[in-house]
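Run log, item B.
One chain of 458 residues. Sequence copied directly from the ordering sheet:
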Amino acid sequence: MAIATINPFTGQTEQEFEAHTEEEVESRIQAAQDAFVRLRSTTFAQRAEWMRAAADLLEQDAPQLARIITIEMGRPIKGARAEVLKCAKGLRYYADHAEEFLAPEPLADPSSVGASKAGTRYAPIGIVLAVMPWNYPLWQVLRFAGPALMAGNTGLLKHASNVPQAAIYLDTLFERAGFPVGAFHALLIPASRVEKVMRDPRVKAATLTGSEPAGRSLASIAGNEVKHVVLELGGSDPFVVMGSADVERAATVAVAARNQNNGQSCIAAKRFIVHADVYDEFTRLFAEKVAALTVGDPLDEATEVGPIATESGRDELEGQVADAVAKGATVLTGGTVPDRDGWFFEPTVLADVTPAMRLHLEEAFGPVATVYRVESREEALEIANGTTFGLSSAVWTNDADEEEWFVDNLDAGAVFVNGMTASYPELPFGGVKDSGVGRELAAAGIREFCNLKTVWKA
């Protein structure tokens, strides 16, 4: 894929960029190493001052930055602005809490190990390579970069090739805020050149958000090099609605949960598993509300759903839906590519989905929802867990026993009760099964790229 901004609303190439040469990549890796030597010796207070300055810059630049996001990957402009502001909040969160999260932890009774003092402390590890996707071109990056830099590490960003302007903005953000030169830089390189960077001995670890195949590839390289990785991969999140649920509220939230960011979110609800007692009411409301969404120019403030980010992504979605319909799925709304410019797909709800259909097991990365009718909580759980993915999940119920049962038994990195999945700086984020390994955000996220060092003193 060329490194280029291709507007998904028009299909036109806005701007192309030359990949960095091998010499430029080498220079940036060495700059990151030099910056690490400086950054690790600074205080938390100094890093926090710089981090808050970076958050201020994001807020200052929000109008033009949101426009870049929208033009590069099609996110409706209101959501793009919200993403920028969420990033600023995330950076401030780590500025406020990093020292607390990485404080030394003394052993309460050091004499039990024959010491006068003993315990653990966290130390930064060095350069971390971040391989990031286009769907949240700022948030995915900064939810890694904030904690990594506050811990004293430095970062190299290999961003998706269709969001180069976002990558270029991030390339200078932290230096503008006061961090040492080289503390965080972007590498404009194709995916084929990631392996060489990952094998560089100065690069100590990697984090990747993206597809399962990309995650497996990076993890295999990391395993061969004995380097740590955090992977946040795909998701096919269940949204379970039981008979005691507030159906009107569940249907309203379901629309947002599925269609946020044009349906292009790993943690979007994708499979709607509904108890027979409320199935007819829920599907009627859900389909009506999805059909009422405003689809159009993502720069228009009124637009709720814009185009799919890439033409190949739109075509993949079209093929998944066509396969399901050919095998007996019922289209409750949408289901087709509209006759208009740009890479659009109608917001869609499909019922009567069976295991024979691709959509039953594959992740649909766009505004397509599948609905299942179940007779019991056991049947709901079987469908919810019947996938190789396990990123997040949601359950709607007003039965306390039922709530606890689902929280205990859903195979996912998170369970949201009577709400939709979202990522918060205050809570750990990550999946199980093929949805990845490790955690981002909260205390767990900043500790992923630290050496937990045991200290024993006689």
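Observations after the first pass:
- The CA atoms of residues 72 and 411 lie 34 Å apart.
- The first strand starts at residue 4 and ends at 7.
Flagged for discussion on Thursday.
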